[in-house]
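User: I'm putting together notes for a lab meeting next week and I want to include a structural view of one of the chains we've been expressing. I don't have a solved structure, so I'd like a prediction I can at least talk through. The sequence is below, exactly as it appears in our construct file.
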Amino acid sequence: MTLQKAKTRLMSAAEFRATSAFARDRKPASEEEAAEWGFLNLKVHFDPYEPAAAAAYQKLKKELAKHDVLGMLARELQKSRPSPHLTRRLLEAMKYLEPRYHNEAVKTLLENLEVLYPVLSQVLLLLKKVIETLDGRTREEVFATLRQLITTDSHLTGIPAHLAFAVRVLAHDPSNAADKALVHAFNSSWSLVRRDTILAMARRARRHWIRDLLARYRNLGQWEQRALLIASYVLGEDGDHWRERLAHQLWPLDKLAKRWAGEKKGAGTWEIPL
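Assistant: Thanks for the context. Below is the predicted structure for the 274-residue chain, given as structure tokens.
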């Protein structure tokens, strides 16, 4: 295990007590800091499966409306070293803002990806969450930025999780240019990324690419093989015949994934899980 400079800051006990919002004897130095402390004490979480989910969601939105989430994010991004803890909480809160705020917020994030490197996973998860609420121009800006990061082997996507989350966003990119970026991602050595790329190409209905990959099934890792089993359902009868030939060779978990995908397809609720 290693400590990453961008994500780690060592400080003395005295410095921590002087700057921590959790120090009992410390008072906020300004109104802005007081607002940040109040926001950090807010529980930004929503469980859609709880009994009173609708009421809880409205309550969360009402509480968030009391805080200038976008203003706090803008101030944080102006710092040379934004607080990862506060920035993560702000990104989490942005998912629950009204869609009309998403376009400007996303543009701000795209302009500051270098600064946001320590929390880039959260940024990419947010982009996936709000991508359908963005206007066409902003959505294309997101896609173009991610395509460039991947095809140029940017250090920003040099971590498997970052690259995998970027692939999940590009799964929603309808352009042919995304194919090049996704194939480039698939050529990485990380099983997580390769698995998500297979599912992304299936979601984009790139049947020719999926069909060509069937011939390489035995050379893939278990994660990629399982993803290809699920992806093969986009091939119709060709996929049916291919899975029949493999049926006796599958591991129990692969059989379970195959059965799950088949039941979803048969029930008409099929959607590539990505």
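A couple of points you could mention at the meeting. The two ends are 29 Å apart (CA to CA). Residues 1 and 8 are 13 Å apart (CA to CA).

User: Perfect, that's what I needed.
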